[in-house]
Amino acid sequence: MSIIFARRAAAALSLAVLITPAAYAGDVTFEIKNSHPNAMRVELYSQDRDYVWPGNGKDFYLDDGETKELPISCEDGEKICYGAWVDGDEETYWGVGPNNKENCEDCCYTCSGGQTEEINLVE
Question: Which one of 6, 81, 99, 100 counts the least CB within 10 Å of its CB?
Fold first, then answer.
């Protein structure tokens, strides 16, 4: 009888693992508009782990007047902040700036799916 009980317990545990929602990956799209007269570079920084988008020493490039949608995959509930700066001038920045070094108000979003409102970066 203990073998039958063990099999049922294992089956129930396997089913519970399959049904339990995983808090692992989500997707969010940042919509960013460059309203500055110069081109800019943008990176997205996790505030919960050591991660940056697009990563690998690259960044997103926006020409003056350009709007881009930046879709990323992130962990559900993760706090993500944008950092933007004028191409060639890291002293002119928005959000957390280059390398996530600055403080900001209203530049962070929670990874919970969907899309941000348009983030308009002006002079």
Answer: 6
